[in-house]
Amino acid sequence: MPELPELNPVIHGKLRLALLSLLAGAEQAEFTWLRAKTGSTDGNLGAQLLKLEEAGYVSAEKKFVMRKPQTVYRITEKGREALTEYVQALKQLLGPAISV
Amino acid sequence: MQDEMSARDLNERLDLIQSMIAEGRRSTESWGWVFLLWGVAYYVAIAWASWGGGLSIWGHSYLSMGSVRSGLAWPVTMFSAVIVTLAIGLRKGRPRRASSLVRSVVSIWLAVGIAMLLIFPAFGFTGRLEEHSFVALVAAMLGVANGASGMILRWKAQIACAIVWWISSVGACFGSVAQLTTVFLVAIFVCQIVFGIYAMILESRRHRREIVHA
């Protein structure tokens, strides 16, 4: 029996998965935009983004626009690779049960 | 971990990934086609205005409106280009801007576009604009939009386009109408058509790089 792949626990959380996928499509996004798209709270979003940042999957750039602090997030190459591997693992696990 | 998860959970995650990637992609609109469309529109307007006569910016009788054909070339073509731009833009969906960077660039182009759409028809009605001034103004305004946008995005290719427009703007103040026409046609070709195609190629490469159906 072939060995089943492990799913990356950093990406597996639904909010983190949504964030990484959003950034994979948008290339870069502000904290407020990510909050609006995910419907998350500031605290939870910040914590999940920090986990992704610590894993090296996203990078954050803090700056001031019109004297207001703004954080822009980008997906890194490592993050993109991790997401690709995660999707491949998902598909492998699902096999014929895949519905997409 | 996998043992605890049903196929439904995993499928939900795949759905989530696909919908979120699509959501993100919608926020980074593709704009290369706009440059190409307007480049072609300028060429159509010039060709229409010059139809049957020597090649010139708006035909020999634009200002006097002596020829309906020449007189309508620019207003009709530009109005059509606005309609086509809006139609394609609306079809692509309302831009969901991911950053103030995108918002800034869109704002610059909207402001310059509105200014051009107001000032040139007004000049057309009053007849107080001759060809050299027309090209100098158009080139300067497009230079401003490209320059500001290129500086915000730190995009050297677009800054180069701005420089071409600014040189054309200064060059338009000198020389004959034939030389002016050549300068305008070359600037349109380089900064609208070539740049538009280049931007579209970059966008297409970016989309290929993304995880589409990984």
Your description of this structure?
The complex is a heterodimer of chains A (100) and B (214). Chain A contains five helices and three strands. In chain A, helix 2 packs across helix 4 (42-54). Chain A is an alpha+beta fold and 100 residues long. Chain A has a three-stranded antiparallel sheet with strand order 1-3-2. Chain A has helices at 9-12, 14-26, 31-38, 42-54, 77-94, and strands spanning 28-30, 58-65, 68-75. Chain A has one domain: Winged helix-like DNA-binding domain superfamily/Winged helix DNA-binding domain (Arc Repressor Mutant, subunit A, Orthogonal Bundle). Helix content of chain A is 56%, strand content 19%. Chain A starts with 8 loop residues before the first helix and ends in a 6-residue tail after the last helix. With 214 residues, chain B is mainly α. Chain B has one domain. Chain B has seven helices and no strands. In chain B, helix 2 runs antiparallel to helix 3, helix 4 (100-126) runs antiparallel to helix 5 (131-153) and helix 6 runs antiparallel to helix 7. The longest helix of chain B has 33 residues, at 177-209. Chain B is elongated and about 75 Å long. The relative contact order of chain B is 0.13. The chains are: A alpha+beta (100), B mainly alpha (214). At the A-B interface, helix 2, strand 1 and helix 5 of A face helix 1 of B.
Uncertain spans of chain B:
61-66, 210-214
Structural class of chain A comes to alpha+beta
Number of strands of chain A: 3
Most extensive contact: A-B, 36 and 31 residues
Low-confidence stretches of chain A: none
The mean pLDDT of chain A is: 85
Beta-strand content bin of chain A: 15-25%
Tally of domains of chain A: 1
Q: Give the biggest beta sheet of chain A.
A: 3 strands, antiparallel
Largest sheet of chain B: none
Task: Please name the fourth-level CATH homologous superfamily of chain A.
Answer: Winged helix-like DNA-binding domain superfamily/Winged helix DNA-binding domain
Q: Structural class of the secondary structure composition of chain B?
A: mainly alpha
Q: In CATH terms, what is the fold-level topology of chain A? A: Arc Repressor Mutant, subunit A
The multimeric state of the shown protein is heterodimer
What's the overall geometry of chain B?
Answer: elongated
Q: Helix coverage percent of residues of chain A?
A: 55-70%
Q: Based on the structure given, which CATH architecture of chain A is correct?
A: Orthogonal Bundle
